[in-house]
Amino acid sequence: MTDRRRVLITGAAGLVSSILREHWGDRYALRLTDIVDVPAPGDHETRNMDITDLDAFRSACEGIDTVIHLAADRSPSADFYETLLDLNIIGTYNAFQAAADAGCRRVIFASSVNAIIGYTEAGRGRVLEDDVMYPANVYGATKCWGEALGRVFSHKHGVSSIAVRLGSPRFDQSRDWDTDRRHGSISPRDTAQLFGCCVDVEDLPFAIVHGSSRHVKSEMDIAETCRILGYEPQDGTAFPQA
Known about the structure:
Number of strands: 7
CATH topology: Rossmann fold
Strand order of the largest sheet: 3-2-1-4-5-6-7
Oligomer: single chain
Radius of gyration: 17 Å
Order of helices and strands: EHEEHEHEHHEHEH
Largest sheet: 7 strands, parallel
CATH class: Alpha Beta
Structural class: alpha/beta
Number of domains: 1
CATH architecture: 3-Layer(aba) Sandwich
């Protein structure tokens, strides 16, 4: 298929990328990049890349429609100078700059619930997509940096930018869960659907969306996410246990 969107995924050896590859099949033509080797199913392309190398990032973005930037240190306790500065600050800047330089249509940035987790720790109910950022750790602050960069590159360079405040992508419909407890997680198939919606949606210059399944009591509201993307969760505590 020659008419598939060409999608670059960074951090392709990680959990979220493995979910996308498993559920998407050959929906897109994927270029999978990581600092370590990544197995390439089907006719997808792989290459090793250090996200702190801007020239290498530019090369990886050549001919690409959409960049899904997953690569980062994802630990809330990560040290700023040891990993966060290089990976989450410089690496994220490089993703947007390389995409702009290569003429990519869109960057989808994997933000995190940690960008707004301060609301949860303060005991507030569900967070809306347009609520002010409220990180409670430095890792979360680096995700706020990525969200802000998306706004800059949309405004200044015309790169469509979508930040996904992703909850844990491990919600399992078949396991026991408590509908009275607040949840911020998302199932693997909802994760794949949500990112697919982010790739496919047209005429969206900038958005911050919430990566959550549909829960009775949710840490993140998803009404606006569903409206602008056409996202329809299939899992969550609002559905019967499988």
